[in-house]
Write a structure and sequence with these properties.
CATH superfamily of the largest domain: Aldehyde Dehydrogenase, Chain A, domain 1
Structural class: alpha/beta
Low-confidence stretches: none
Number of strands: 25
Strand order of the largest sheet: 15-18-19-14-13-21-22
Number of domains: 2
Mean pLDDT: 96
Largest sheet: 7 strands, mixed
Number of helices: 18
Shape: globular
Oligomer: single chain
Distance between the termini: 63 Å
Length: 540
């Protein structure tokens, strides 16, 4: 059997899919707005899985459902609902005590957990993520919400005391910013979306939530959980084409925070539409072209293992993926040999296949795009190093290791966001440093070497060029308590459990002179529990 036939064989007939992983079509005809599940009778968008079936007519992606294609009218109704719920900071949610907001969030966790099986299945079918990774994404999201609650308790405990200086007494707490527009990515449509939505929500903001184009349906089972856990109008969903429904929202000037994970081009366009950009806070995670640097002092097998994880986890469709590998010329041949052998060992198949590492791609155009950048690299002097690299069948693209990559190639600068691994030989360590200096991106770098002095000499320049330096390990986001950000076009603001809470809030304080009258007033307010802000209650 040829390799192409082996790839084709992964697309089995529907009756051969294990029963526990089969899917019933989900046709969403409602959306959450102003505390109601509002019916939708208009245009819908069909959702086709990267999983499909090969027959005499070619490849047919499986239809797994539909969702509303709402218009600007519905988007503005959701905006009005969020504005009313916030009520200039006087609404029930922004004035609610931290303890009561946490109770609402804990109720949401309970209701969300009830939908685990369905959401995990939809993750697999919608974006082709393996069952193990889909389950991990759901569970990690629950862990993230719990960690956010714990972090907020910690912040609140530190804020529950009064501070005194220069004859003044003050209590300093964090307060919400207003209406937040949350837009997440397709590669982690649940987890990364919730890393902005959840902290924004629990800090007292009201939410406009637009699901990603790929990974929309999996949020549908969670809408009732939002509806039943939070006050009316606090969480509102926006469906429709982004180019139709989001520009007007930003142009209204009524969105206070843009939380967006995606391309810098889209983020820049949205920000520019806001009439008073100084009033807009942006929390953005954007493009990246993370490099790995493998020197002659590296443990090559360890470097290969980590580079494969970094470059091909979820088919390389991660902003934190390793998307460029610089390898010192003296060890390039051995590194490429080990890298090719490692890629060949990766199991390919459908998302529910046991131990599968390589799966079909969700974006219909992606195999053609990847083929184009591979052909461009070949035209400018590179070759496909690994056997069967770049082989394509339907929605599946087999990883291609390209070498030697140079600055003339699209692959040298463009973010491939898929299973193509560019390898660049270098003689002087200044070459990868210069690459990072010239790059428009600045998220992370991985350095592979067992020479402490060599690593130290690279740490100092790279910490000022990227936000995270990984030593002998892949680029990655976690743990969630670590700061996650980037320089240049890669990010704005910082996301970690603690940093995100700060990103979606502002420090506010109540202060007065320490006169006897003022002391009595403060004691009366605190002892009588008259204010949710001015309080010494201690959350355990």
């Amino acid at each position: 059997m040829s390799f192409k036939d082996q790839l084709s064989s992964i697309f089995v007939e529907e009756n051969l899919i294990p029963p526990e992983f089969r899917i019933t079509e989900v046709h969403q005809r409602e959306y959450l707005s102003n505390g109601e599940m509002k019916p939708w009778h208009g245009e819908v968008s069909e959702v086709y899985s990267p999983v499909g079936f090969l027959n005499g007519d070619g490849f047919t992606r499986k239809l797994i459902g539909t969702y509303p294609v709402c218009t600007e009218k519905e988007a503005f109704e959701s905006l009005d609902a969020a504005l009313a719920a916030y009520d200039n900071g006087r609404g029930e949610w922004p004035t609610m005590s931290i303890a009561d907001r946490i109770k609402c969030m804990e109720q949401f966790i309970y209701k969300m957990s009830e939908q685990r099986a369905l959401v995990v299945n939809l993750l697999m079918w919608e974006i082709g993520k393996s069952y193990g990774d889909s389950a991990k994404e759901f569970d990690r999201t629950i862990e993230y919400i719990n960690a956010t609650i714990d972090a907020l308790k910690d912040i609140d405990r530190h804020s529950s005391r009064f501070e005194m200086a220069e004859g003044l007494v003050a209590q300093i707490r964090r307060s919400p910013l207003g209406v937040v527009l949350c837009m997440g990515p397709f590669n982690y449509p649940l987890n990364e979306t919730f890393t902005t939505l959840i902290p924004a929500l629990i800090m007292g903001n009201t939410i406009l939530f637009k699901p990603p184009k790929h990974g929309t349906l999996l949020h549908y089972p969670l809408l009732k959980a939002f509806q039943e856990s939070f006050p009316k109008g606090v969480v509102n969903t926006i469906y429709g084409r982004g180019a139709v429904v989001t520009p007007g929202l930003m142009a209204s000037g009524k969105v206070n925070v843009l939380a967006f994970i995606g391309s810098s081009k889209v983020a820049n366009d949205l920000k520019k539409r806001h009439p008073k950009i100084n009033r807009l806070r942006a929390v953005l995670s954007l493009d990246a072209k993370n490099a790995a640097i493998v020197t002659k002092h590296a443990d090559l097998q360890q470097a290969v293992n980590e580079c494969i994880l970094g470059a091909l986890s979820f088919n390389g469709q991660r902003c934190t993926a390793i998307k460029m590998i610089f390898v010192q010329k003296e060890v390039a041949d051995e590194f490429l040999k080990l890298l090719s052998e490692g890629v060949a060992k990766l199991k390919f198949g459908l998302p529910w296949d046991k131990d599968v590492k390589l799966t079909p791609l969700p974006e219909p155009h992606k195999p053609a795009f990847l083929t184009d950048i591979v052909e461009d690299a070949i035209a400018h002097g590179a070759r496909i190093v690994n056997e069967n690299g770049g082989e394509t069948v339907a929605s599946f693209f087999y990883p291609a290791i390209m070498y030697p990559v140079n600055e003339k190639m699209k692959l040298y600068r463009e973010e491939q966001f898929g299973p193509v691994i560019p390898v660049v030989p270098f003689e002087s360590i200044e070459e990868p440093i210069d690459y990072q200096i010239d790059s428009p991106h600045g998220m992370q770098v991985s350095i592979f070497s067992n020479d402490a002095k060599e690593i130290a000499s690279l740490i100092d320049p790279f910490v000022n060029l990227v936000s995270r330096v990984n030593i002998n390990s892949q680029c990655q986001r976690g743990p969630d308590v670590f700061p996650f950000t980037g320089r240049k076009d890669s990010a704005e603001g910082t996301l970690s459990v603690h940093d995100a809470l700060r990103s979606f809030s502002i420090r506010s304080l109540v202060t007065t002179k320490m006169t006897e009258t003022n002391k009595q007033i403060l004691n009366q307010i605190v002892n009588g529990n008259e204010s949710n802000f001015l309080s010494t209650k201690f959350i355990l």
